[in-house]
Amino acid sequence: MQIDTYSHFCHCGMENIHYYIEKKNIQGSILQGAEHSALVEALNEKGEKVKGPYSITIIVQDINDNAPKFDQQKYHGVVRQNSRPGKPFMYVHATDRDDPTTPNGQLSYSILHHFPNPYNQMLFQIDNVTGAISTNEKGFRVLNPQKQENFLLVVTVKDLAGMSENALTSNTDVNITVKENLWKAPPRINIKENSTEPHPISITQVRWNEPGANYELMQRERLSRFPFIIDQNGTIYVTEPLDREEKELYSFFATAKDEEGKELDRPLPIIVLVEDINDNPPVCKNVLTIFEVQENEGLGSNIGTLHATDMDKEDTLNSRLQFRIVDQNPNIPIDNLFIIQQEAGTFQLSSSSLYKGLVSNYSLKVEVTDKVFTTLCDVKINVIDINDQIPIFEKSDYGNWTIPENTPIGEVILEIQATDADEPFTGSSQIIYQIEEGDQNKIFIIETDPKTNRGFVKINKVLDFEMSPAYNLTVKATNPEPLVDTVQYNSSSVAYFRVTVTDVNEAPVFSRNTYIGYVYENVPVGTLVMNVTANDPEGDKYTLKSDTRNWLRIDTSSGEIYIAAPLDWEEERAYIVQVTATEETKESQSSTAVLTLHIKDVNDNPPRLAKDNFLFFCHPLHGGERAEIVATDDDEQMYAPEFTFSLGDGENIKSTWEISRINGTHAYLSPKHTNLEEKYYSIPLIINDNGKPPLERNVNLQVKICRCSDDKRCFIEAEHHHGLPSTGMAVGILLGILRLNKIQRSSAKESDKLR
């Protein structure tokens, strides 16, 4: 064995000698990191032992003399369009012959080049530890095989964990083919209702880009019965016949999940439209449809329309209805006395041969068909006397009537009566009473008893003595059926009466029960908010109740409400008070309305840290460390907040630290180099919001560079007590433990190789 360099450590007078050998230009089989033991004796010329034996331990230390190598010269991978960012679709792997327990054998992967680069930024990313290649956010959005199907990545691997300029490197080519995303929503599915085929029936399929996905269906709306299932091939089935009249459109989602139940991508919308078939018969709207026709109606006159419905889809041939008269009873004076419009169902006279004295009514049967189903509807046509008599009042003047203004709505104040000599219970004899003059605001209404034709005058709206203390009313009696041409209404169909309204002492009445106002929280004191008014002839005095924060004042005479003190949106966003109007009379009646004052926020709170402003980094620094900073704002956020983070001035602050933005509320603090001392650092941080006007907060971040435990927790130094190990002793003990662990690991590796 030839050794060019080694270090020699000897304890003179002791029987242990350790040699530390750097693995450089060594001839012979010496394993890096391994230990070799030997016993050495000193002999004289006679071969007699003079000294010894001495135990010698030789420990071989690794140097970085092997470059990493990829397992393949070229790699090939396939990625689907819209592949999730960060989800690996392939791996590259390299090995290094140096000691993997040292930085010499620790590898770091990165993407060196990207061909082509149509967006001037990377579309792929690689895990620097595992070599996993995935799309990044940009690639997730823009990768499209129709635009660019193939990419070449030049991937570099470095030893020394990629943290040194002296690291040894190796490169490989990675050819990536972009394929169309299979995870697509299928087109709308049309299913005919009431299918008689055996169920379940396959209706469509969804596919994830890779095998092994678990498929599920999610309802968009909660249905008591959900007639769809999906199997593990992504095939969707309908499990039973569907009825369009029950539900015409189904909308739900299909999801693909991994083994842990996490969704692999966004759910796909599934739309199922149930197509109509002609499976419903026409239905007559009424069991018996009754029309009336005057005996003097002429040829072609419209009598009425027969209404029928069909539950099949509207405006389709399945719900198209056609009408036909199949029977008329009696057939006097002629058959086919009536005709019906085939599509509309409207009856007309085919002859002017109606005589009430001969036949007072006709019964007809009408066939209604949708070309598949047929229904018979019964129709009765009553022949009525012509309207040649007018209503006549029993008296023309009903006198004077006095009522208080608080008479309730609906109360009857007067009954009137007219008679008509036409045939009873027909449109010719039915009487309608109308107030022709004296009631422009329709304060009164007259209802008719259909059996007696008696009229009841009622209060229709609230009376108001101050607005109208008296009414002179003219009432006219008419029929719903028009009079014959030779007869006209005259004074016999007109009556008169007068109503006097008496005053009642009333409580004030606000114009509204609820008042709503909007103001900004920085509105000046003394600003007029609004004017509330109550209607009361006696006059009112206004006061405020429930003004718990004393933010408002009211003018007791006018009802004008003003700002009395500064408002604060952070304290109250909807300030609710009661406004009372009280009569200035002995009775002192009062009414109350509610004022809701919505306070709008202004930017009067600077941003602040949402978390503790104490951060730490583990010593020694290796590079790439960063700590998250989160800011918030107590003002109302109409949109997502946008904060700006920057470092303040200070000695070596910007040369030692840097801030990088994550999003509108988060940022990273990172050290710029690794040679920071183990101590506390106070870092001035400036946070600005984007309000109007923008506000700023200065924060002193407390950052500690400290030694950490294995779980990345900062050591807290304990006070020194007599009888406990000193710092030096503790370090020595710790190094001894580490040394023992290393020897144990090396021995274990040798044992594994021997096995």
Automatic annotation (TrEMBL):
GO terms under biological process: adherens junction organization; calcium-dependent cell-cell adhesion via plasma membrane cell adhesion molecules; cell migration; cell morphogenesis; cell-cell adhesion mediated by cadherin; cell-cell junction assembly; homophilic cell adhesion via plasma membrane adhesion molecules
GO cellular component labels: adherens junction; catenin complex
Keyword Transmembrane helix: yes
GO molecular function, one term: cadherin binding
Primary site of residence: membrane
InterPro entries registered for this protein in UniProt: Cadherin (IPR039808), Cadherin-like_dom (IPR002126), Cadherin-like_sf (IPR015919), Cadherin_CS (IPR020894)
Keyword annotations of the record: Calcium, Cell adhesion, Cell membrane, Glycoprotein, Membrane, Repeat, Transmembrane, Transmembrane helix
Name used for this protein in its record: Cadherin 17
